[in-house]
Specification:
single chain, 82 residues, mainly alpha, two-stranded antiparallel ribbon
Length: 82
């Protein structure tokens, strides 16, 4: 997903987009690349907490260890984006 697509989705769904879209796009790409998943899966994990079945990110509705690791990795990349 590109930054514009992410922003459009957030605006349509939530009525606002308060995130740095370039940083979000970059973080999604980096996490996806490191774990052989799509940027769209990472985006929806972060925004809507949607599970990524191939990564076993959820169990009984809660984040598993791998889900928490993906989220932490995303946050580190997002907040350190220059």
């Amino acid at each position: 997903m590109k930054a514009k697509e992410m922003e459009s989705y957030l605006l349509e769904t939530y009525g606002k987009a308060v995130h740095n879209m370039k940083a979000m796009e970059y973080a999604c790409k980096e996490v996806a690349k490191g774990h052989d998943i799509t940027t769209k899966e990472v985006f929806f994990l972060m925004v809507e907490n949607k599970p990524i079945p191939s990564m076993y990110t959820h169990s009984y509705g809660f984040n598993t260890r791998s889900g928490r690791i993906l989220k932490q990795e995303f946050e580190n990349i997002y907040y350190n984006y220059q």
